[in-house]
Amino acid sequence: MKKLILTGLLLSNLLYANSLLITQEQLKEQLIPSLTNSIVFEKFKPILAREGKIGETIKTFTKDGLETINQVTVPSYIVKNTTDAKEEYIITKDKFEKRYVFLKKENKTWSFFKPIGEIKVVKIKNNNEFFILAPWGEKMIVKKDDFLVSPLDYSEIYRIANKEFFETYKPKDILQK
């Protein structure tokens, strides 16, 4: 059985820790080696989604506060997680179609979708908060015990707050392969 690896990362270990904002390129340079050693996690909780409207702004709140702000600039979906925080975020239509499949209509606005995407993770061990530049170009806060995650192609790295991570992700069952 494969050992569960959640690599811890201290902010002081990040070469760019003194930057006001750590960019995607800097994150990838520093984290991909650790991410490749992580096991695969899968999202197990269905989500609600609806089509976004160009110009629509979404503020993402987790149980520990404001995480980030994003605006619909290209065809996208608004995702509402089925966590306690019911956090909402924007995902482009292309990414959405690769990561979710339709389950059923909830009402005239929202539909349930099953997640099919997989990620690798690094757990943050630093006591100090810092900010990364999210894939959509906005600041995203990172706090102690949060996770910096990436899809398996390492195309982007973003934060998932600790509480919401454990409400929605689990290690992928390697026996399913």
Task: Give the helices and strands, then pairings.
Layout: E1 7-9, H1 24-36, E2 41-43, E3 47-51, E4 57-62, E5 65-71, E6 76-81, E7 88-92, H2 93-99, E8 100-105, E9 111-115, E10 118-124, E11 130-133, E12 139-142, E13 147-151, E14 158-160, H3 162-168, E15 169-171
Parallel strand pairs: 1-10
Antiparallel strand pairs: 2-10, 2-15, 3-6, 3-9, 4-5, 6-7, 8-9, 10-13, 11-12, 13-14
Task: Explain what you see.
The protein has 177 residues and is an alpha+beta fold. It has 3 helices and 15 strands. It has helices at residues 24-36, 93-99, 162-168, and strands at 7-9, 41-43, 47-51, 57-62, 65-71, 76-81, 88-92, 100-105, 111-115, 118-124, 130-133, 139-142, 147-151, 158-160, 169-171. Strands 1, 2, 10, 13, 14 and 15 form a 6-stranded mixed β-sheet that branches. A hairpin with a 5-residue loop joins strand 8 (100-105) and strand 9 (111-115). It is globular. The two termini are 13 Å apart. The model is unreliable at 1-7 and 10-18 (pLDDT under 50).
Determine the number of helices (DSSP H or I, runs of at least 4 residues): 3
- SSE string: EHEEEEEEHEEEEEEEHE
Strand content is 35-45%
For the residues shown, what is the average pLDDT? Answer: 88
Biggest sheet details = 6 strands, mixed
Number of strands: 15
Q: What structural category characterises the helix and strand content?
A: alpha+beta
What integer value in Å does the Rg equal?
16 Å
Distance between the termini: 13 Å
Helix content: 10-25%
| Unreliable residue stretches | 1-7, 10-18
Please tell me what the overall shape is.
Answer: globular
Descriptors:
alpha+beta; six-stranded mixed β-sheet; five-stranded antiparallel β-sheet; about 180 residues; single chain; about 15% helix; disordered N terminus
